[in-house]
Design goal:
By secondary structure, the chain is an alpha+beta fold. The protein folds into 2 domains: 2-65; 81-231, Cathepsin D, subunit A, domain 1 (Beta Barrel). The chain contains 3 helices and 12 strands; from the N terminus they run H-H-E-E-E-E-E-E-E-E-E-E-E-H-E. The protein has helices at residues 2-14, 21-73, 217-220, and strands spanning 81-87, 103-113, 118-124, 131-134, 136-143, 146-152, 161-165, 168-174, 181-192, 195-204, 213-215, 224-231. Strand 2 and strand 3 form a beta hairpin. Helix 1 (2-14) runs antiparallel to helix 2. Mean pLDDT is 76; it is low at 1-19, 70-78 and 80-99.
Length: 237
């Protein structure tokens, strides 16, 4: 487009003069010089854009490295992880429940899952980004064009299974392993104390961990303050 405009300007500039062979040759040389300059400017601009993209990507890598190093120092978090969203659902999410006064909860609390009618002792961990639920026999499938997941909550072969639509997929980088771990995230309803909540839970293999349920800071940040020295401040055990 720039080359076409330059050609037009060049024609307009010489339109009032009687064209001679020398003038035509000079104009053609001048036009070629202008086009060469435009080509050079375009290459420089492309190079600058590529360099900026590389800087942006490097900044993201540096941010992840810093976060990993910080988590190596922080020994209070029982499960070190960095989480970022890899694939988001296009569906709108429910508004989070935000209490006017934050709850005071202990490092371990009792939660009751509404649909499953099951109660668990949950670890409260502000060092983990997402809440997590340990499941067994996880199987993903499609229903009406949407992705779903089926799982059980104990190891029994005849254990009852539950089905949920997958809200999104997250990728988790753990300090103790370089393997990439992709987990489905579902939205579940549960009761904590005398309040009902809805939160995102990533489904994971937590069989090697003490607690099958973990509540992370995405859920905690707007509704609770944590006293890590206490347990079951909201009742139950």
């Amino acid at each position: 487009m720039f080359k076409h405009l330059t050609s037009i300007f060049a024609v307009l500039a010489i339109s009032g003069c009687v064209a001679t062979s020398d003038q035509s040759e000079d104009s053609a040389q001048h036009l070629q010089q202008v086009n060469n300059k435009l080509d050079s400017m375009e290459k420089n601009l492309t190079t600058q854009i590529d360099a900026q993209c590389q800087q942006d990507n490097q900044a993201l890598v540096d941010e992840l490295v810093v976060a990993l190093e910080a988590q190596k120092v922080d020994q209070k978090s029982p499960e070190k992880e960095i989480v970022y969203v890899e694939n988001c659902s296009e569906e709108s999410k429910d508004d989070a429940v935000v209490a006017s006064d934050k709850m005071i909860i202990g490092g371990i609390e009792s939660v009751f899952f509404t649909k499953e009618k099951l109660k668990y002792s949950a670890r409260i961990d502000t060092g983990a980004v997402t809440s997590s639920l340990g499941v067994y026999n996880e199987k993903r499938f499609e229903r009406d064009g949407k992705k779903w997941v089926r799982f059980s909550l104990n190891k029994d072969e005849n254990a009852h299974t539950y089905e949920y639509p997958i809200d999104r997929i997250i990728r988790i980088i753990q300090q103790t392993s370089s393997d990439v771990n992709r987990r489905p995230v579902i939205k579940m309803r549960f009761k904590l104390g005398d309040k009902d909540f809805s939160a995102d839970f990533s489904l994971a293999d937590r069989d090697h961990l003490e607690y099958q349920v973990l509540l992370g800071r995405e859920f905690l940040q707007d509704i609770a303050m944590v006293d890590v020295s206490a347990k079951f401040l909201q009742g139950g055990e």
